[in-house]
Each structure stands twice: as structure tokens, then as C-alpha cells.
């Protein structure tokens, strides 16, 4: 039994949800998001709560039950609060700055990296060594943050590179004479 799937998703004030077939659309102060559920689950809206129930006892139906409920909860969180990933840059001369709609990264390469920011996500640089990625879609926010981190992932010897804020990098000892 899914313990996550049993919990109904509460809709806060200012958020409305509509259901058409297997597609749920959630509207809130920050925007609109939708999710197309599989045929293994049934989504129902009762007033200000959304419940997800499995159709049948199959393993796939139980898997989709918890996942679908979590995605619906993320839709509600996205249109009310939004999602945020923070990155920090470590290394001598490594820096980031916004130029128009692209993020300019100096990462010790022979050229500067111009990272175009996709629609639906906002990227800001409060400091030269900090990058904040914000948006209403958790998948898109996480993917953009991962793509930025991919340009210079932290290395284990000196820890130079782009890392998530609070991420621990296991450090290795260099070779000895």
C-alpha cells in the first residue's frame, strides 16, 4: 500500500484545480501547470482537496499511485511558492554574471561559457560566486541547475567547480613525494 498516495492534496486559497479526463490543471498566483496521469490511477477533486486512487491491485497501479500524488502536490507547490535551486562556484577566477537572457560563466576554460536561460525559469546571480535558479516546474528547475553544474562539476582534489549549495564533495589526498 502506498502511504504517500493515501494522503489527499490540499488546495490552498487562491489555487484552483480542474480535471478533464486524466489531465489535471492547477492554476495559482505564479502560473498554471498541468499533469497528464496514466490510466492506472483515478484523480478526483472534492472541494479544495485532490485525491488519487489506484485502479486495480497491480504493481504498476500502486507505483503510479504514489508518484501521481507527489506530482499533483508539486504542481500545487509550484503555483503557490515555486521551486529554487542554489549553486555556488568555487575556484580562483571562476565567476558568473547575467547578461540579458544568458548566463555568462568564467570557469577557467579557454573561452567564456554563454548559457541561454530557457523560458519558464529565472536565473539570478546575487554574487559572482552564486547562481539561483527559480521557477514553477520542479523538473525544469532541476534540469537547468544540472546543466549549469555540468559545465564544471566539482573535482575531488581542490573542490573547484560548480556545486549545489550545501553539497558535500568527498576530498581526496594528492600524491606524496
TrEMBL record:
Name the UniProt record assigns to this protein: Large ribosomal subunit protein uL6
Designated gene of the protein: rplF
Function: This protein binds to the 23S rRNA, and is important in its secondary structure. It is located near the subunit interface in the base of the L7/L12 stalk, and near the tRNA binding site of the peptidyltransferase center.
Family membership noted in the UniProt record: Belongs to the universal ribosomal protein uL6 family.
Species the sequence originates in: Tropicimonas aquimaris
PANTHER family with a match to the protein in the record: 60S/50S RIBOSOMAL PROTEIN L6/L9 (PTHR11655), LARGE RIBOSOMAL SUBUNIT PROTEIN UL6M (PTHR11655:SF14)
Oligomeric form and interacting partners: Part of the 50S ribosomal subunit.
Gene Ontology, cellular component aspect: ribosome
InterPro entries the UniProt entry points to: Ribosomal_uL6-like, Ribosomal_uL6-like_a/b-dom_sf, Ribosomal_uL6_a/b-dom, Ribosomal_uL6_bac-type, Ribosomal_uL6_CS
Keyword Translocase: no
Residue ranges occupied by any Large ribosomal subunit protein uL6 alpha-beta domain in the UniProt entry: 12-82, 91-164
Keyword terms of this UniProt record: Ribonucleoprotein, Ribosomal protein, RNA-binding, rRNA-binding
